Structure prediction request, 513 residues.
Amino acid sequence: MWRWRGCFQKFTQGIHKPVKQRSCRFIWNTAEEHVPPKTELITVSPAPEIPHLPMAESPHLPMAESPQKVPQFYRRVLPQSCISFYSQEGKKIFHEALESGHMECYFKLAAQFRTQDEPAFCGLTTLVIALNALEVDPGEVWKGPWRWYHETMLDCCIPISLVEQEGITFNQFICLAECNSLDTQPTKSGTGGTLEQFREKVVEYSKRDDAFLILSYSRKTLNQTGDGHFSPVGGYHPEKDLVLMLDTARFKYPPHWVSVELLWDAMHALDKSTGEPRGYLTVRQKTSSHVEQKNMLALFKLSPSFDIANSNVFSAGISPFICQWQDWLEKDSVEQQDMKQTLQYIIKNLNNCAKAGEVKETVFTTQIDIKCAGDISQAHACVVHQLLSSIGKTPLFTAVTDFLTHHGGDQHLDRLGCIASNMSPVQAECLVDKLGTAHFVVMFLLSWPYETSGPQTNQNNDVLIRLLVEMHSESCEKLLGGESNVLRKQFSSLLKLQKEKMARKKMCGCRKC
Prediction:
């Protein structure tokens, strides 16, 4: 009881002192909460009345509500279906797999292995690892003078800001890979292939370091948290039938060993955004020309009117033009007397197709502004000059220039391309008065992925193929041919993806898939 008496006296004495802006708190001793009966009462003299204080000055201010905490995590525990790479068992499996010769793919991948920069970047990071492991030159500066792949550079088909929120799908991964000088052989689970064929792929590509196997699967099937994920295959243990998954989300799970059968099941899980199963694909560097291998676009690039994230790859402004152009290519050609008339026939019909597009949307723009860290270098300016000179020497350029001269008021070919607006003065000086509508038109005709219709047919597709073969030259092969090859590859990937999206719409009968 003495503890109460002293505390109470101290409190009453303090009333005569100036009030401090400080909250008073009693620590209640639950062991002494009950006062025994017949306890002597303490008489205390009445204290003077405390003047009323405004709320702002009250010593008994209500405590501010603590901000709601965002959940935080440090790693996740691997489920029993997975074996940690650096556990004792995982090390033993690695050693045995290495002796069996099924870890050849591991070393180049491990040399470039990185943690994804964003929670939804598993697809981009997996692709970056593969591109750098296969020693693909992006032809674009990363930092300083160095050309090197990074996730933020993979924006040729889908905006990075959208990938940060939603990630990418299996088809979008394929498109990005093919747009960056990789050959892909995709297999969607449930639509092709068997478990045994998948196992054969794992065995084959675990023994190679010039090509890699990448999986798109659902984490849920592995009893992991989350859902859709991309990972490269880093090795295989044939006796235990285990695959090493180089998980790019290292903040969550370490690399781990998983059974082939479980991965096969995980790839069959449907992707909610597409309604389709996931799958696997092999990637390797393209083996065509040196310029195409390095993906070194010097000047041109596809405009933002092409976006694989949309339900339609082509924007509403550019789609009518592309569709009319495709329809015209499949029509029977009207025979012309010579090459000059044939060229005029092609350009006239291209102009008619371009008329269907929106005025402010173009097929091409220039990417010189993102190729250089700062102002354009003298070497790059020289390459651009040579490229424009090569275009100017083609019969196509002469024919387009002639058409523009005679149809200035009724031409729509300026919808084929425009110069990027965000250039520095030095970069703009490199192009102003040197790059015109005719250059964009020629590049479009050279880079479109024409499809031959057969030996007995004479469609406009076939006419253009024969014409381009006839105009083929050594200068075109070295520089102009390289630029058009890369753009053709990108066109081909986008057209393929658009065809798949249209087929899905037709099957499900909906307007948006």
In short: Confidence is low (pLDDT under 50) at residues 1-45, 50-64, 289-294, 369-374. DSSP finds 18 helices and 13 strands in the chain. The first strand starts at residue 83 and ends at 84. The longest helix spans residues 474-508.
